């Protein structure tokens, strides 16, 4: 938390893995492990599936993230499949989201084959909400910046549409909301108006007084089909402009 930092602030060396006083786990690519230390097989299998998909087809728009991105493929009222088919399938998009991923897991996937052969025109990145437990704001910021850097290094012609972390908790003013706002303010600085664009669409999910509706986020984290429609509407103009 920022409150534990000195008045002068800690020196954060971006995406080097060095965090004032020690290493930053959020920027170190790692596989997901089970409690016994063995690889999480289902996660590895999904990763391999994405690597194969990237080799088999050309991808113009690549979505990278965690469960919120993952659920673009889910059907019904608790997923975005219909919205995806309507808005993003025509853009030749692919979804490489995996539920539960943190920045370090997505970094591992990017650097271990998922972007080895594909050169999308644009990548839509949203990651970091799962890092809120166990990482400081500054560590998460560095982790997100490392993800963007990895995408650009793997495919310099790929433009990145970086999304701010979506709101959590049903009411405004919570610790999570405050932390997310601080993180988003920092990662917004990556927007260079050309190769990296940043959008914070969180307010579009909120109602009066900053409240989250269960019609949009039933668990104050994951979206309904209505939430995915809001997401699509909010990013499509910018995304299409980036694809020109």
Number of strands: 8
CATH class category? Alpha Beta
Assembly of the depicted chains: single chain
Helical content (DSSP H or I, runs of 4+): 25-40%
Mean pLDDT: 92
At CATH level 3, the topology is Rossmann fold
Q: Distance N terminus to C terminus?
A: 40 Å
The arrangement of helices and strands along the chain is EEEHEHHEHEHEHEH
CATH A-level architecture: 3-Layer(aba) Sandwich
Quickly give the structural class. Answer: alpha/beta
User: Low-confidence segments, ≥5 residues, pLDDT <50?
Assistant: 1-21
Biggest sheet statistics = 5 strands, parallel
Radius of gyration: 17 Å
CATH superfamily: SGNH hydrolase
So how many helices? 7
CA-based shape: globular
| Strand line-up of the largest beta sheet | 5-4-6-7-8
Supply the number of structural domains. 1
Strand content: 5-15%
Question: What do you see in this structure?
Answer:
The structure is a single chain. With 244 residues, this protein is an alpha/beta fold. The protein has one domain (2-242): Rossmann fold. It has helices at 41-56, 67-70, 81-87, 103-114, 137-154, 175-187, 225-242, and strands spanning 12-13, 18-19, 22-23, 61-65, 93-97, 122-126, 159-163, 196-199. A five-stranded parallel sheet has the order 5-4-6-7-8, with helices on both faces. A three-stranded antiparallel sheet has the order 1-2-3, with helices on one face. Strand 2 (18-19) and strand 3 form a beta hairpin. The longest helix has 18 residues, at 137-154.
């Amino acid at each position: 938390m920022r409150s534990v930092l000195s008045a002068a602030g800690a020196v954060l060396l971006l995406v080097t893995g060095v965090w004032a006083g020690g290493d930053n786990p959020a920027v170190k690519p790692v596989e997901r492990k089970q409690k016994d230390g063995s690889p999480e097989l289902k996660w590895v299998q999904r990763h391999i599936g994405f690597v194969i998909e990237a080799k088999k087809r050309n991808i113009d728009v690549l979505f990278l993230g965690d469960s919120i991105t993952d659920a673009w493929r889910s059907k019904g009222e608790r997923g975005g499949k219909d919205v995806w088919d309507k808005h993003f399938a025509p853009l030749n998009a692919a979804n490489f989201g995996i539920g539960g991923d943190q920045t370090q897991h997505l970094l591992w996937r990017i650097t271990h084959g998922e972007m080895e052969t594909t050169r999308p025109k644009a990548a839509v990145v949203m990651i970091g909400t799962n890092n809120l437990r166990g990482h400081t704001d500054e560590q998460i910021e560095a982790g997100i910046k490392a993800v963007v850097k990895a995408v650009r290094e793997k495919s310099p012609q790929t433009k990145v549409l970086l999304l701010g972390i979506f709101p959590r908790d049903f009411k405004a003013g919570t610790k999570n909301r405050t932390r997310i706002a601080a993180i988003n303010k920092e990662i917004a600085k990556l927007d260079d108006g050309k190769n990296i664009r940043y959008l914070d669409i969180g307010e579009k999910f909120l109602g009066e007084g900053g409240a989250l509706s269960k019609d949009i986020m039933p668990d104050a984290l994951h979206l309904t089909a209505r939430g995915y429609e809001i997401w699509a509407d909010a990013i499509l103009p910018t995304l299409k402009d980036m694809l020109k």
